[in-house]
Amino acid sequence: MSVLPDEIWRRILELGIENSKLDYKDLCCISISCRRLNRLSSEDAFWSTLLSLDFPQRTDGASRSMSLYSPSKNLYMMRFEKDKARKLAAHQRALLRLESQVAVHAKSLKDIRLRLMEESERMKTVAQELSNSEKIRQASVALNVWQPEIIRGRQKQIVEQCGVPINSRIAALEMELRLCKQQISALDKAYKGQQRRLDVSKEELSSLKYHPLRDYKLTGPGRDECNMKRKKLNGCSK
């Protein structure tokens, strides 16, 4: 290592940065390997290149004047921390949005479940009433057939308890029963769809949860511009 002059090491670091082989983490790791590389990796030219690639700024007047008097490494650190804070804030907003979605889906699921229970109870009541009406109709038909007086009197009593035409009542109950079944089918389908949406939101929320060991990486348009610039530099060097 001591055989190679500083110019060779500078060129190695320069090519590594231009070819996207070295980033700010690599320069920091190189800087703690030995005094010589610590001195070389801290040179302003390398950090200036990284600064222009990772943070292609849209600088205002204050930032531009600061860049004239501050080392590029310090500027990189400042912009890195600012960008990191911005991304953490966006991350928190995304978390809150997903938590809100989970709460909304859970509430909708609860409402659909309650409606399903109510509709099921209603269907049971209608089915029971339809069964009783069928018995009344059978009793009405049986009145026209000869039978013992005791049984005939009981059937007559059952028929007289119904104040509406039995056939009309049975038709109305059958229609109501069909409507209940359709409503339950639609609610069941809505319940399954809502459950899927809730599961998806919970999965997204779980994957978005902060983890202290998660690696911090640059994302977004700035990183895309950085990659495009590095590709252009690679093409020129070839």
Query: What Rg is obtained from the alpha carbons, in whole angstroms?
Result: 39 Å
Shape: rod-shaped
- Give the termini distance in whole angstroms: 27 Å
Structure summary, number of beta strands: 0
Broad structural category: mainly alpha
Major sheet summary line: none
List low-pLDDT spans. 216-224
N-to-C SSE string, H for helix and E for strand: HHHHHHHHH
Give me the oligomer status.
single chain
What is the total number of structural domains?
2
Mean pLDDT: 77
SS field, number of helical segments: 9
Strand content: under 5%
- What percentage of residues falls in helices of 4 or more residues? over 70%
Highlighted features:
rod-shaped, 9 helices, single chain, 238 residues, 2 domains, mainly alpha
How would you characterize the overall build of this protein?
The chain has helices at about 5-20, 25-30, 35-40, 45-55, 60-70, 70-140, 150-160, 165-210, 220-235. The longest helix is centred in the middle third of the chain and has 71 residues, at about 70-140. It is rod-shaped and about 120 Å long. The model is unreliable at about 215-225 (pLDDT under 50). The protein contains nine helices and no strands.
